[in-house]
Structure formats: structure tokens, C-alpha cells
Amino acid sequence: MRTGTHSDYMRTLKLDSDELASRRRFFGIEEADLDRLRALRPLAERHMASIIEGFYFLLLEHPRTREFLNDPELVERLKGAQKRYFLGLFDGRCDLAYVEDRLRVGFIHERVGLPLKWYLGAYNRYLELTGKALREELGPEATTAAQLSLQKLVFFDTALAVDTYVAAQIDTVARHRAAVEELSTPVIRVFDRVLLLPLVGTIDSARAQSIMETVLRRVSDQEAKVMIIDIAGVAVVDTQVADHLLRATAAVRLLGAATILTGISPQVARTVVELGVDISSMHTRSRLADGIELALSLVGRKINVETRE
Amino acid sequence: MSASGIPVIRIRNTLLSAIQGDLSDQVAEAFQQHLLTRIEATGASGVLLDISALEIVDTYVARVLVDTAKMARLMGARTVLVGMRPEVAATLINMGNGLDGLETALNVDDGLDHLGTLRSG
After folding, report:
1. Residue B105, H or E segment
2. Shortest Cα distance from B93 to chain A (angstroms)?
3. What is d(CA A261, CA A246) in angstroms, rounded to the nearest whole number?
4. Can you name the residues that pair with B79 across neighbouring β-strands?
5. Residues A104, A15: contact at Cβ < 8 Å?
6. B29-41: b or e for each residue (b if 16 or more CB lie within 10 Å)?
7. Interface test with B, best of A246, A247, A255 (most B CBs within 10 A)
8. Cα(A141)–Cα(A147) distance, rounded to whole angstroms?
9. Residue (of A112, A110, A125) closest to A69 by Cα position
10. Tens of pLDDT, residues A116-161
11. Quick one: which of A214, A231, A224 has its CA closest to A269?
12. CA distances from B106 to A106, A109, A160, B114 (A)
């Protein structure tokens, strides 16, 4: 699920007027550069069609980039967008609206899954074709000046594109982490006011903290009286893990609920005692079934065994 | 209503107080005084302290709560703390404060039930 838009990235990347001014200073983009580019707009318009064609020739010629352009209708639409982008370089402005527009371009490329290397490579072709057009019409000196101004803006754009890719990656990693965290604490309602949390894998400090938060939230939301934590699937139970479990138990008690620890193997029982950890404040059971029975008795229920004839 | 501004309501033989807002030194003292006076006057055997409105319970407030329960206990009333928020519980445990010795319940209903078992036990 994707929820971000390029405007979100404006915020993520903190692209405000201060940041814009700082970037412009660093890339050396001055009003003279923008004026120079604005003056070249008629030239850019004359050469636009052939530059865009040359640009797409490269993309369609290369097998790996061709994969992204298998739909002729898409190519036509992209050419339109590309023309607007190209002329944007000769608008003679470099403000926040410009930044947002450039960010959108990077965002779209990232979204269709175009690797950054193709993006940068294609940009190189862009400069090459534009340079050729400039040389055709201008003298050597004017060409150099125009190319320098253009180069500044192009690097400025590229930095934004790279930023967009990075922001998207960070976004993806954050969403994956959230998904993993959610899966790592699957709280199940086994009965009215009785919850079960089967823990599997390794418990480090970060996970322990997230377990505690989830457990407390669920106990509070569902007004649970008992939280059963089953640790049969926990790889290693050492002093730290035991401490995390004790803290979770203490916190659950503050809410007014009880914790039952189940799934304690002989190995774990030995370890805990040998480590000198005092878990006498917790209800503990070896088997989950016994834990559930104890939980039910704590909420005033009982499992009846019916003997059939 | 007392000088603390925190009402103490009697329900049969239980006193109920919902603590809201900041507990300054004076408020805490006035509240304790008022609560203990009410225990004396009503002969209540149980006290419910509802803290569901408290978003922050720092070390000072935690001590006030534990002390209040101890004082009530000396006068023959058992105290149950009810309605603590999950964030508050997590913060207290992270500060290493488990409010030892203080009874807890999820809400006022459970608190009344709990007082019932404490009285019979």
C-alpha cells in the first residue's frame, strides 16, 4: 500500500524556502543563469521535437529501458510530459513551485520502478543533445555560458530526483518495519476478557518495547482481565528476555489485569532459576492449555469435561 | 468538594474519587486530608481512585497515590487504583516504578469487584 505523494516528500525532505535558498547557493544558480536560460527558450522550442525524439531513441534502443516503454500510448504521454519538463529548464525560474514540479517527475519515475541509473543515464543523453543544438545556433562562447547555466539547473534537478528516490526507499522500509512489528505481536482474543500473545523468535530490546506497548494497548482497548503470553516459540530466554517479560507483567498489572506466562520448557525453567531471575510475581504454566484454564478461572469461568457414555 | 477541588463520592461502603488535572503539593495534601476525613466519617472500607483522566503520572504523583493508599489502609480502607492509561503504565515501568503494593483494576466496575474480593479475603 502506497500512501505518499510527491507533496509528502516536499515535507519529508523539508523542502522549504530556506532549503531552496541553501541549495541554490550551493549549486551556484544565480538570476543571471536563469535569465540566460529564459532567453534561450525560443531556441529550445525550435529544437525540442528532435531532442525528445533523440532522447526516446536511446531509451527504446536499450533493452532494459525498453521494458518500461512497451506501451505506445504511454510513450506518447511520456513524450508530452518530457516536453513540458524540457521547456521547464528554460522558464527562467527556480522557486518552490519549480522544486515541487521536479519532485513530481522523480516521484513518477520511482513509482514506475525505473532504476536511478537509467534515469541518470538518460539525463546525460539529454545534455548531450541539448549541447549539440546550442552549438548549432550559438557561437562557442555563448554555447559554453549557456551550457554552464543549464548544467547547474540540471544538477539541481538531479539532486531532487535522487532525494525523491531515497525518500521513497525510506518510506518503503518504514512500512515494512511497521508490517513486521504488527506480525511480531499477534494478540488473539481467546475468550471474553482473555487475550493470548504467542511469541516466536528472538526478543531484543526494541521488540520488547513494542510488545509492551501493544500488550498494554490491547488490554486497555478490550478491557482484558488476563493476558496470556506464550513463550514456547521464543528461541532464547536469558536474563534480558526474562526482565522484559517481568516489566510487561508489571505494566499490565498497573492497568489492573493479570499476566500468565505459558510455554515454559524444562530448559527455560532451569535457565531462569540458574540465572537467579525472580519470576515469582508472575503466574506461570508449562502448557498453554493450563494457562487458558487458569485464565478462565481468573475471569470466573471454568471448562467442564463432559464424559460421554 | 474539598479545598483540593477533587470530589469524593460515597457509594455504599466505598469512596470514589476521580483525579483530574495537576496535583500540586497543596492539592495533594488537601485531597488526602479530605479523603481520610471522609473515611473516618463514613467508615468506608474501600477507596477507588480513578486516574483515567491523567495523561501523565510522574514520580511525584505516583508517590502521592501510593502514600494515599497506605494512609487509607491505616484507617481500615483498601484502595484500588483504576483506569490507568497504557502510555502511563509504560512510562512508569520504564522509570522503574511499579507502584508496588497498590492494587489496580481496569475500570470502576472491576475496581468494585476487586474491593469485594479484598474485603472477603
Report:
1. strand B103-105
2. 6
3. 10
4. B47
5. no
6. ebbbebbbebbee
7. A255
8. 10
9. A112
10. 888 888 888 888 999 999 999 888 899 999 999 999 999 999 999 8
11. A231
12. 51, 51, 51, 10
Residue A192 corresponds to which amino acid? D
Q: Which amino acid is at B119?
A: R
* Predicted model pTM: 0.61
- Specify the domain boundaries for CATH 3.30.750.24 within chain A: 188-298
User: Min CA distance, B65 vs chain A (Å)?
Assistant: 12
Q: Which of A85, A77, A73, A82 is nearest to A54 (CA)?
A: A82
Residue A66, C-alpha cell as written in the block: 525498453
- When the candidates are 1.10.600.10, 3.40.50.80, 3.20.20.140, 1.10.490.10, the CATH number that belongs to A6-182 is 1.10.490.10
User: What residues of B are in contact with residue A250 (Cβ under 8 Å)?
Assistant: 93, 98
Identify whether the C-beta of residue A199 lies closer than 8 Å to the C-beta of residue A174. no
Q: CA A28, A29, A31 angle in degrees (round to 5)?
A: 130
- CB A256 to CB B107 under 8 A? yes
Kindly state the cell numbers that stand for B7.
Answer: 470530589
CATH 1.10.490.10 in chain A is located at: 6-182
CA distances in angstroms from B64 to A106, B70, B71, B76, listed in the order given:
57, 10, 10, 18
Distances (CA, A) of A223 to A4, A114, A248, A258: 35, 49, 16, 12
CA A9 to chain CA centroid, nearest Å: 11
Asked if the Cβ–Cβ distance from B92 to A257 is below 8 Å, we say no
CB B79 within 8 A of CB B73: yes
Are the C-beta atoms of residues B109 and B82 closer than 8 Å to each other?
A: no
Q: Is residue A54 a contact partner of residue A160, using CB atoms and an 8 Å limit?
A: no
Question: Could you read off the pLDDT of B45-91 as tens digits, one per residue?
Answer: 999 999 999 999 999 999 999 999 999 999 999 999 999 999 999 99
Asked whether the beta carbons of A231 and A245 are under 8 A apart, the reply is: yes
Quote ipTM for the complex.
0.82
- Extents of the domains making up chain B: 8-120
CATH class of B8-120: alpha beta
Q: Which CATH number fits domain A188-298: 3.30.750.24, 3.40.640.10, 3.40.190.170, 3.30.470.10?
A: 3.30.750.24
Asked if A83 contacts A105 with a C-beta cutoff of 8 angstroms, the reply is no
